[in-house]
Amino acid sequence: MRGCRASARRHPVEEAVGDTRDTDTSDASDAEEPDDTDDTDDTDDTDDTDEKRSDRMRRTAWFPFPGRSAGGVELLCLPHAGAGASAYRAWATGLEHSGVTACPVQPPGRERRRDEPPFTDVRPLARALADEIAEVITGPFALFGHSTGALCAFETARQLRRIGGPRPAHLFVSGRPAPHLPLDRHDLAGMSLPELTETLRRLGGTPESVLSQQGLLAALQPVLAADFSVNEVYDHRTEPALDIPITAFAGEQDGGAGPRDTAAWAEHTTRPFRLHVLEGGHFAVFAHAERVHALVAEALADRVSPARGSAGHVDTQQEELSR
Amino acid sequence: MNGIREEVVDSAFEAPADGLEQVVAAIVADVLSFDRVGRSDSFYDLGGTSLQAIRICARIEQRTGRTAYPEWLFTHDVLSEFVAHLESEGEDGR
């Protein structure tokens, strides 16, 4: 089923920010923000009993916002280029009560880990993250990755298989063509600021409010360049398909990772594959977070006793338009 | 409802000093949806994104007339340090 791609796919656009729900710098934009709600809990962290502490996954450099697991499935969320774990902080609230706990992943080189050099190659990143998962994650978990994060999640799943580590219940990928499809290269590292601005503007997906903040772009350039390198300087090697179901999300108007390129992820699993097409562009998965959370929770509902799909059957059904 | 600061910040809460620290702390807490933010808290621990940094600076400018640049929240991520930087560098447009 592997197609012969004569032309390299256009690179999925990346955004220099973590929060894509709001592109307006004015105060009025705050009204559009979903509430970042949380359970009311008057208990100060220092008053926690040991029993309560054990319910929470421990905070590490890789997992700065572990949330409260309470026995559910940890959804390890890998961010897009230039972004960090903060991009998913609001997902903790959105997934509450679903049995799924969002656990944003922080690769080195950004936010709290900005003093560490970022990875420029996905394989060492996958090795480091797989080791961390094997060390820290004790219960059921799944991987979610957006754009560059999708590739990282995929290679991490492969690495976990390689080392005989804990197995994710599910792989969720968003905003990236299937890994065997080649991408264009955009070498951001050596670009001048005007060049970088223009490149990001041309690729689309970075709000003007960020493009207009030259100081911010300059600060983000190194990690953007590294993340683009992770995503693009990647030589895909053929390995047996994962024995993990894959669910993919694609923005209808995402020029770099549209439904067709995303459907090709189906080749990488022997278990059921589903594609959900969302209205919008590259960041549709964040714009439609509520729907995505529902679909994720549904996909993970049988985590306790995973349904055995027909071995070897790849189900590429379901193009759903999310309105 | 807001997030609880103690769930992401290990250190004890230190009340912001009167004046600019209090104003900035209130803005940061509001934009990042926390019940409160202390003067020793880091923008990174609070999970702030780049877009939120832009929003915070826009509000600081509206409220105080001082120009703040979002990347300052990256380089001076501790609130008291950010405010000190703002005091020394931020132009007062009023």
Automatic annotation (TrEMBL), chain B:
Protein name per the record: Carrier domain-containing protein
SUPFAM superfamilies named in the record: ACP-like
UniProt-listed Pfam families: PP-binding
Residue ranges of every copy of the Carrier domain listed in the record: 15-90
InterPro entries in the record: ACP-like_sf (IPR036736), PP-bd_ACP (IPR009081)
Natural source organism: Streptomyces similanensis
